[in-house]
Structures are given as C-alpha cells and as structure tokens.
Design goal:
Layout: E1 2-6, H1 17-21, E2 28-31, H2 44-56, E3 60-65, H3 71-75, H4 80-96, E4 101-104, E5 116-120, E6 126-130, H5 139-148, H6 163-173, H7 178-199, E7 202-205, H8 224-233, E8 239-244, H9 245-249, H10 256-265, E9 271-274, E10 277-279, E11 285-287, H11 299-308, E12 314-317, H12 335-355
Parallel strand pairs: 1-2, 1-12, 2-3, 3-4, 4-7, 7-8, 8-9, 9-12
Antiparallel strand pairs: 5-6, 6-11, 10-11
The protein binds D-mannonic acid and manganese (II) ion (MN).
Manganese (II) ion (MN) binds at residues 206, 244, 246-247, 273, 318.
Organism: Lacticaseibacillus suilingensis
Function: Catalyzes the dehydration of D-mannonate.
Cofactor: Fe(2+); Mn(2+)
Length: 356
Amino acid sequence: MKMSFRWFGEDADPVKLQQIRQLPGVNQIVGTLFDQPAGAAWPEAEIAALKQQVEAAGMKLEVIESVNIHEDIKLGRPSRDQYIANYITTIKRLAKYGIKVICYNFMPIFDWTRTDLFYRLPDGSTDLAFDHTQVQGSAQAMIAKAKAAHDEYPMPGWEPERLDDLATLFTAYEGVTEADLAENLRYFLAAIIPTCEAEGIKMAIHPDDPPQPLFGLPRIVKNRNDLDRIIHMVDSPMNGLTLCVGSLGEDPANDVPAIIREFVGLDRVPFVHARNLKRGANGDFHETAHASSAGSIDMYEIINTLTESGFDGYIRPDHGRMIWGETGRAGYGLYDRALGSQYLNGLIEACAKAAE
Ligand code: CS2
Ligand code: MN
C-alpha cells in the first residue's frame, strides 16, 4: 500500500509540502488544482508546476483528488458534451505528467455534507459532525432558513453567496430520479473510459457522504449494490472506486470489510480513504481520531482485510480533528492527519508481517 497525504496546493493549503515530507513512510501527495472550476480543462502549465513542486519536495504525485464534474453532466443536459470533452483533455494532460488515479464524485450540488465543522470532543479537540435533524425539510425550506440565519459558520455548501445558485440548482434537479442520475453517470463513463484505457488512468468514484439521500436529491453511490452497479456500467479496470471507509461506514448497514473483500478482489479499488467516526442514532455521526478505540470502526479489521485482499493501491488518512490549537481547513489540518498516517502505517506493517 502506498501511503499518501492530501494537499490542496501552495496557495490554498496552510500545510507545507516540507512538513508532509517529514512524515515517515508518506511518499505520495494527493494533489489538486484547487482553483479550477468544475467543467474546466485543466491548464497543462499548472499541472506541470504542481508536479514539479511535489517532486522538488522529494515526493511523488500520482493521485489527483478531485477533478470535479460539472452539474450539466450530472443533469444530462445537452451542454454536457462540451464539459466531457474538457474532462477528456484534463485526463490526457494528467496522464502526461504521470498521474495514475483520479478521485471524483457524482453527488448533485453538494460534496460532503456536515452540519457542524467544529463539533467538540471530550478531549477538547474539534471534528466534523452530522446531525440529521438539521437537514430536514424541503430544499426551499432549507434555503429560506439559511437566508434568515446569519451564521458565522453556515453549513458547507450553504454559504450566503451561494444561496441563489442553490435555488436554481435545486429547481434543475426537480424530477431527476436515481435512475436518471445513474444513466448520466453511465453516459459520462462510457465517454471517458476509452481515453483512460489509452492513457493508463484509473477513475475512482468517491461514495456519497453521508450515504443517504439529502434534501430530496438523488444519491447513487451509497452502498454495495450501488458500487456493483457502477463498476458494471462500463466494465473496465479503469472504472474503479475510491473506497472511503468513513463515508461508507457512516451507514451501519454497510459491511465495509465485506465491501473491501469484494471490490478489491475484483481489482476495482485503486484508492482508499481511511478514517474513523462514532455513529449515533438515525444516521447521525461525528468524526474521531483514526484509532479503533476512538470510534465505531475497527481500523485493524479494515487494514487487515485490505492486506488479505492484496490491496496495493494508494491509501490516505482522511479527515482529522483539529488538535493542539491548530486552525485552518476543518478536517484537513496537519497534526491529526499526521498521527493518522503513522497509526495506519503501523497497522499496515503489522498486518503485512503477520501475513508473511
Ligand atoms: C473528501 C471528498 O473531504 C472529503 O470528504 O473525501 O471531498 C472527496 O475529495 C470528494 O468527494 C471527491 O470528489
Ligand atoms: Mn473520503
């Protein structure tokens, strides 16, 4: 397994490459061009510069997270073909600079959704949390509520400057069913996978987070059956999954070790996100430190199952707590993800040696 660390770029990330470089056994950066809007063809010069920065710091750049999907592709609008053409251009340019895996998601309107970015844990640290009672009601009611509130920290995706766009987007999704969204994903994959095959790039779709429908929007990457449907939409080793332990694990009905065994066994998992969380009732949860003892997920079982299944792809710690007074991007500070990387490396070494 190749231990990696997500980094948002020199301007967007308070964490420095030189700091990541000092983590033992972390040799891979999961990079992105943070400023590129969904639908853009990524400029080659910026890809080249990112690669150069990472290599100058003594690490490798082989995974990109994320190349975001334009809403017109998810909605199946006629204009999607132009955005798909741009996506293909981006794939070719990334391949030219040695990228092997692209992590992406197919969630309408929002990426991950949390109701609290500063949930306080008993040890005084903070982490991300989800409380279903705060996301009840229609999209219209949610928008009205968000407009009336003057929160210092609105829910991610519900920032005041985005609310008018949100209303338009929600209208566009009226009547779009799960079957429609799945068909639009299939159309996208059918268009891009031949290029991925030619260029040697694996696509790795990220699960919906949380893995349940929200605000009446369709969700199609929630559980084992969804993943099974996706890998068969276009039956190619380049059409793969990001196995996000935390996202899938938020639903107690998901048997994450069984999902690992099945899809790693099929060689469809190029990328793993490893994090822990504590589940509450009704789909509620808060995130925790990575250790098994901190949350509901047995991380030893996760790493041991990956080892037994022969997983040799990229893995990274996922969201971390904010500890030791660190400020910055919630979920993506240095300290707790650094601890997570070392804990995971310990489990990986122990499981590998036990299997020898
Ligand atoms: C990530 C996602 O921060 C996170 O939760 O796992 O934002 C992920 O990068 C995207 O969904 C992938 O497109
Ligand atoms: Mn994830």
